[in-house]
Amino acid sequence: MNQKILLTGITGQVGQELQQTLTTLGEVIGVGRQELDLSQPAEIRRRIAEIKPNIIVNAAAYTAVDKSENEPEMAMAINAQAPTAIAQAAEEIGATLLHISTDYVFNGQNHTPYLETDPTAPLGVYGQSKLLGEAGVQDNCDRHIILRTAWVYGSRGHGNFVKTMLKLGAAKEELRVVADQIGSPTWSYDIAVFITQLLAKSLNDPRIKGIYHFTNSGVASWYDLAVATFAEARQVGFPLKIKRVLPIATDDFPTLTQRPAYSVLSKAKIVATLEDYPPYWRESLRTMLSEWHSISIKDEKKLHKLISNNQQQLSRKQ
Questions:
Q1: Residue 309 located in a structural domain
Q2: Is residue 310 part of a domain?
Q3: pLDDT of residue 257
Q4: SS3 sequence, the chain?
Q5: pLDDT at 297
Q6: Is 150 a domain residue?
Q7: pLDDT tens for residues 25-76?
Q8: Parent domain of 170
Q9: 189 is known as an active-site residue
Q10: 315 in a structural domain
Q11: Which residue among 62, 114, 126, 189 is the active-site one?
Q12: Is the pLDDT of residue 221 over 80?
């Protein structure tokens, strides 16, 4: 059956990837802030009732972790109230809802990978708002899937740690990066692929619902990820000035919101469900950087060609 899929958050890292991967399941109707104001629950319900999708994928979120402390109303509106309204609308039309959540629902005090059933204890407003969003989905839509992920990066969408490192590494010779926070760096494309696989399987198996964890395999610190990013970026030709990356403690880099010290999520449940294992984080990082560099070179050549053509046209006019 060809599905009608409503996708929110199309300008984000995962949302942009999902616009491509979800086409294997059917027609994708993507909406961003221009098309759907997620701070207006009544508007959300009206639009969903109008579109009548078979599947809704909510990839939208207020992801400014530190900013959430100063803008709690906006964080709660987008991360808690909007998913609740989406879930209510999905239930009314009998749609399946897949909602993306985060490792920030945990406090990071574990020493083994977090299971889907482990107690939650968010440390800040962002994590609290995402946890309330999960509850809103669970309480209002029977056919729901909540996918928690962590440490997301990619070439699309807004800024992320890898993009920030490349920008800083091109301008500075030395950087200090936190080395005592541990997680699993995760490529946005891999998230989109596994979401699509999970939804495809759920169409024929109603038992596939509830909470699932997904990240790339393996673990690293932010320091490890920075070092790996520079090493892999050099291999494919990114221009870098960086010479030294120094490990520091979280206390040496204070932020408005306390970050979980340990954000490793267990993938046992999703692996057992899909019989597929997530790629190792550094392999995905290497692939992403290689593809991004190739696209950048093509875009640069197109720009040079456009400038050259414009200059030629100006010369002829003169």
A1: no
A2: no
A3: 86
A4: CCEEEEEECCCCHHHHHHHHHHHHCEEEEEECCCCCCCCCHHHHHHHHHHHCCCEEEECCCCCCCCHHHHCHHHHHHHHHHHHHHHHHHHHHHCCEEEEEEEHHHCCCCCCCCECCCCCCCCCCHHHHHHHHHHHHHHHHCCCEEEEEECCEECCCCCCCHHHHHHHHHHHCCEEEEECCCEECCEEHHHHHHHHHHHHHHHCCCCCCCEEEECCCECCEEHHHHHHHHHHHHHHHCCCCCCCEEEEECHHHCCCCCCCCCECCECCHHHHHHHCCCCCEHHHHHHHHHHHHHHHHHHHHHHHHHHHHHHHHHHHHHC
A5: 54
A6: yes
A7: 999 999 988 888 898 999 999 999 999 999 999 999 998 898 999 999 999 9
A8: 3-300
A9: no
A10: no
A11: 126
A12: yes
Beta bridge partner(s), residue 31: 8
pLDDT of residue 172: 97
d(CA 299, CA 57): 31
Count the residues in the chain.
318
Q: Could you tell me if residue 279 is left (phi over 0), alpha (psi between -120 and 50 degrees) or otherwise beta?
A: beta
- Answer whether residue 159 shows pLDDT above 70: yes
- Judged by average pLDDT, the poorest of 103-112, 269-278, 298-307 is 298-307
Q: Residue 252 belongs to a domain with what CATH number?
A: 3.40.50.720
Give the chain's domain count: 1
